[in-house]
Amino acid sequence: xxxxxxIREIWDLYKYTRENNVPLPLRPIFDIWVHYNRYxxxxxxxxxxxxxxxxRNTQKRVKKxxxxxxxxxxxxxxxxxxxxxxxxxYWLSVNRLISHKRVDLQIKAFSKxxxxxxxxxxxxxxxxxxxxxxxxxxxxxxKNVEILSWLGSNKLVDLYTNCKGLITxxxxxxxxxxxxxxxxxxxxxxxxxxxGYKETVLDGVTGKLIDDINEDKLVEAIKEIGKNPEKxxxxxxxxxxxxxxxxxIKKIKEQIGR
Length: 258
Description:
The chain is of the alpha/beta class. The chain folds into 2 domains: 71 residues, no CATH class; 164 residues, Rossmann fold. Helices cover 44% and strands 11% of the residues. The longest helix is centred in the first third of the chain and has 19 residues. The radius of gyration is 19 Å and the shape is globular.
């Protein structure tokens, strides 16, 4: 089983999901659903012969919540399809539009940076709470923030290629492939200092990791990295190669052969 994370809504994000996404009258029903699904998770994971996961962060969750050991093999990044161009006139954010990605922090930060531009590439599901969060961030979006959805892969590569850098603010992210895609484009990353980002971003070398992230700290990081984003190019390209598809395939074959 290759696992990106145990179901977060019933494990590490249970309290967050309950308080932020579940209406008060439905919380008792949600609790019953969580209890039943936790039981099923623990039961059926015992039938799995071997577990491989995407990060040390996920490895810890698998042990904590499912009481199973897992081998870490980072997910594959096709680094060869990404390439570097000189910095364009915008910052980039790539993530699902859901509350624990904390995209609202990015929007609030850029409302204080009217001379900077942010392009958010964000897909969203059609359930009520997904729509509610999407509508919320659109309602607070200033003119210097643009939201794009459902882009083709070539367009996304172009956006990485021409951006100043990537901004990503997710709460305890499993791994964060967007970070590796940005670095494969030679672009620095500004991220919250938690979760999988701590395993990919080299603070001060390939970007900036922010402790206890908030909009003001994000503003300061954007100003700092924005002074000379090009200086991170070589370190980013080098770091991204550690997550190339060829390495993933080699490690997976080794696990299958054991």
